[in-house]
Amino acid sequence: MKYNPNEIEEKWQKYWAKNQTFAASNNSDKPKHYVLDMFPYPSGAGLHVGHPLGYIASDVYSRFKRHQGFNVLHPMGYDSFGLPAEQYAIQTGQRPEDTTRVNIDGGVDKEGKQIAGYRKQLDKIGFSFDWSREVRTSNPDYYKHTQWIFIQLFNSWYCKKQGKAFDVSELVTVFEESGNALVEAVCDDNVAIFTASEWNSYSEDQKEKILLQYRMTYLAETEVNWCPGLGTVLANDEIVNGVSERGGYPVIRKKMTQWSMRISAYAERLLQGLNDIDWSESIKESQRNWIGKSVGAMVSFHVKNHDEVIDVFTTRPDTIFGVTFMTLAPEHPLVSKIVTEEQRGEIEAYIEKTAKRSERERMADVKTISGVFTGAYAEHPFTKEAIPVWIGDYVLAGYGTGAVMAVPCGDERDYAFANFFKGNPEASGGMPPIKNIFANVDISEAAYGSKDNVEIANSDFLNGLNYKEATQAAITALEKINQGTGKTNYRLRDAVFSRQRYWGEPFPVYYVNGLPKMIDAQHLPIILPEVEKYLPTEDGLPPLGNATVWAWDTSNNKVVNTDLVDNATIFPLELNTMPGWAGSSWYWMRYMDAHNETEFASKEALKYWESVDLYIGGSEHATGHLLYSRFWNKFLKDKGFAPTEEPFKKLINQGMILGTTAYVYRLGRHLFGRIGENKGEISNIPEVFISKNKKELLEKEDSVLSETDLILKRNLVKEIEEKGNYLTSLLSEELKKSASVKISKSGSAIPIRVDVSMVNSSDELNVERFKSWRKDYIDAELILEENGKYIVGREVEKMSKSYYNVVTPDDICNEYGADTLRLYEMFLGPLEQAKPWNTAGISGVFGFLKKLWRLYFDDNGLIVNNNEPTKDNLKSLHKTIKKVAEDIESFSFNTSVSQFMICVNELSSQNCHSRAILEPLAILVSPYAPHIAEELWLQLGNTTSISEVPFPVFEAKHLVETNKEYPVSFNGKMRFTIELPLELTKEQIEEIIMKDERTLKQLDGKTPNKVIIVPGKIINLVG
């Protein structure tokens, strides 16, 4: 009976689907275990073999937990809103919802492309997902709850005193009774103090404007990353090297009125919560750095000749007397107010220039020094001396207050800035000499940034104090003159929540007199309207500005035509949509109760599942998704919905599977002259590609070549001349000569990536397929190796469609089966490390599965018997039980696969076909290779699925050695071995050895001087 993976796998995938084998129950007596993958964005490119790595790992773990008796929730869905689908729709003229649906379910898109579909690809790999709970963030029945959560945020405020969020109605009650003077809230910085009587006298619009300064989500003018090419705001993690990750468009800093969320209110809780979760230290550190807690002081500097104050947060108030100049971020609102007319032109030019650089780029660039003097001066709070005020792009508007009190003697960046502009005529006298306020420290070459062993000098009342003493004394003095206070600051900024896109969740918001109003939850969802164009409108409004039916009728509580807006009963709706992270910030809770129509999840479901026990996903989400998810979870807990403070107990980041790119080498015009080019003619000359080894010969200097290789190189040059129409008789002898020199000293041929499907495991290119790959390659000439093959170059890179190095799991499954793919991906190496994909290794894993099959079957059928297992059989099995259980719990999946191979080899050599061994072996293999395990289980006579059969119990007694194979030596030279029971005494061992025929033969009638025996180790006869 032959192993036929395709037939077996199709059979069991249908069985699992029909019987809902992996559906989790919300009412079970079993202990629960919730295993979650970061769900995918369904792109048209589909899955490549790198994508399933984390899914296979989580599936192995989920199946193992079922074997251990857990009620396992292992769901899957799609993060289906987002910019990629919108951009694809713009380029191809398709509706994003159509392309998203086809990408998930499969089919033919508008361009006629056959799309495999994520669902079919995932099913083909045999995952034990509970598909009955599938979610898609772009479905109205899902995003109605995202809209509802937004409303909860809008209707909440954060109390500093109690450290949690409360309903805004409670805040209104406080305002009505006692005003806001004693309210300790996370709110805008410029909130005016009012009494109860003043509050009660305000109009409804005035009250709404004040409440917006307290709400957890609010409208505000914010510095954002604006991408004109995409027509939208981008998050920091959507920008790479100053351009958009999607499309590579320039990004500038721009002020816009945006929805924002007060994630900063949760900064300390987000920081402290990291101590309570089992995540890698690197991910925790990324979050700590992003939150960026720092303790110091807020200091106020009055601007001379202006009624303005520059507020600065500093972690080093002890250095207050070392302030040499001040630097504002170019976007700081005070810049335009304090700049002198003489400096205005230069300031405006600099602001325009720096607006083109992202915050991330500015933070990373520590080498470039740039800035402009404003012409204005601030007043030192103690000495009252004039301090020049500059702007510089190393200061960020979104960090701290957007202003820095520069102390060059104690900060490297300030030091470099001061030295760069010191004595520069263009600085207009705006850069004083650097002050040194550290005793016995030389700052002639560099700043002294350490807090250790500091003694303050040249600092009035701080002289002689150390860092801690001076810090406290400075803060006390600042508080006395009302120009400062001690403060804890965080780098974490409020999250911009608006996107000028179409394909995202609509806000449940309409506007009355320009102020936002929430649509009542009972009327949700507010469904994304149809539009003809997905680009911004001609007057710059977001794409929803193109919608003809996008206004809110407050009388009938429904969306109506925009031309009916009368601002009496029918009002305009919000035109922005929510960002991509909105739907993914709570999705794990929806899986708990995916079909609940009235709530995002019932209290009972939330209480039962609580939180995710194991979360697996990429480290690229270290700050963005994971931070926002933790924020929303904490907020929902404050409001009595989420049952736990943290959403994900344990997090594992799988490493990336890298592609092995294939390169061909084109002989470029920088290496050779061609006919026609030297006479200004255009000739129909072919592309010439040189094989890897020939290329390497061509690149070597003549002087290092042997006589044989030199001849080969000359012949190679002649071949290139002939095939590529290079350097022929039309060229002068002198030109040929100079060109030949150029050949011998050439750089490299131009490497060009080619589709890896055209290359075999021996790196040989399929020449015919290559020539038909592109129109301009049809007539290509190829310089081949001596054996007539074209050998490509190889390089390990990120697996990407654009690199042509993608291997699809479908191809592997079709040829070898999904179980082979699953085992191979787990076998590649430690889960958390990056590793290159090498298709050549697949056949070895496939061979292992065939060998496993042969333990159970021969050509005539089942060969399993009821024979008693031998000690060796039991030892092989129980070694594997122990190893596999330990490895899965520690996520060391690659070593489990190695143990399977060892076990099967041992059982094969032992000629073991015992049911007592092979039945538990099938269960052990099941988490990794579930299809073959199910079939083996069925063929052994079982009638139920193997998926929930108890995991075999390890019995240590089978690994206890009862015998020892002793090496028997004569005068230190081993002559033979003998197996003896371990419980024998020295005397008993000696008696057996001395009577052994082999001993008698070696001694040849002699008596040894000494018999050395160490029980369990050695036997040595001496003399």
From TrEMBL:
<dbReference type="Pfam" id="PF00133">
    <property type="entry name" value="tRNA-synt_1"/>
</dbReference>
<dbReference type="InterPro" id="IPR009080">
    <property type="entry name" value="tRNAsynth_Ia_anticodon-bd"/>
</dbReference>
<feature type="domain" description="Methionyl/Valyl/Leucyl/Isoleucyl-tRNA synthetase anticodon-binding">
    <location>
        <begin position="874"/>
        <end position="986"/>
    </location>
</feature>
<dbReference type="GO" id="GO:0006429">
    <property type="term" value="P:leucyl-tRNA aminoacylation"/>
</dbReference>
<dbReference type="Pfam" id="PF13603">
    <property type="entry name" value="tRNA-synt_1_2"/>
</dbReference>
<dbReference type="Pfam" id="PF08264">
    <property type="entry name" value="Anticodon_1"/>
</dbReference>
<keyword id="KW-0067">ATP-binding</keyword>
<dbReference type="InterPro" id="IPR009008">
    <property type="entry name" value="Val/Leu/Ile-tRNA-synth_edit"/>
</dbReference>
<dbReference type="InterPro" id="IPR025709">
    <property type="entry name" value="Leu_tRNA-synth_edit"/>
</dbReference>
<dbReference type="InterPro" id="IPR002302">
    <property type="entry name" value="Leu-tRNA-ligase"/>
</dbReference>
<keyword id="KW-0648">Protein biosynthesis</keyword>
<dbReference type="GO" id="GO:0002161">
    <property type="term" value="F:aminoacyl-tRNA deacylase activity"/>
</dbReference>
<keyword id="KW-0963">Cytoplasm</keyword>
<dbReference type="GO" id="GO:0004823">
    <property type="term" value="F:leucine-tRNA ligase activity"/>
</dbReference>
<dbReference type="GO" id="GO:0005524">
    <property type="term" value="F:ATP binding"/>
</dbReference>
<dbReference type="InterPro" id="IPR013155">
    <property type="entry name" value="M/V/L/I-tRNA-synth_anticd-bd"/>
</dbReference>
<feature type="binding site">
    <location>
        <position position="801"/>
    </location>
    <ligand>
        <name>ATP</name>
    </ligand>
</feature>
<feature type="domain" description="Leucyl-tRNA synthetase editing">
    <location>
        <begin position="288"/>
        <end position="478"/>
    </location>
</feature>
<keyword id="KW-0030">Aminoacyl-tRNA synthetase</keyword>
<dbReference type="InterPro" id="IPR014729">
    <property type="entry name" value="Rossmann-like_a/b/a_fold"/>
</dbReference>
<keyword id="KW-0436">Ligase</keyword>
<dbReference type="GO" id="GO:0005829">
    <property type="term" value="C:cytosol"/>
</dbReference>
<keyword id="KW-0547">Nucleotide-binding</keyword>
<feature type="domain" description="Aminoacyl-tRNA synthetase class Ia">
    <location>
        <begin position="11"/>
        <end position="156"/>
    </location>
</feature>
<comment type="similarity">
    <text>Belongs to the class-I aminoacyl-tRNA synthetase family.</text>
</comment>
<protein>
    <recommendedName>
        <fullName>Leucine--tRNA ligase</fullName>
        <ecNumber>6.1.1.4</ecNumber>
    </recommendedName>
</protein>
<dbReference type="InterPro" id="IPR001412">
    <property type="entry name" value="aa-tRNA-synth_I_CS"/>
</dbReference>
<feature type="short sequence motif" description="'KMSKS' region">
    <location>
        <begin position="798"/>
        <end position="802"/>
    </location>
</feature>
<dbReference type="InterPro" id="IPR002300">
    <property type="entry name" value="aa-tRNA-synth_Ia"/>
</dbReference>
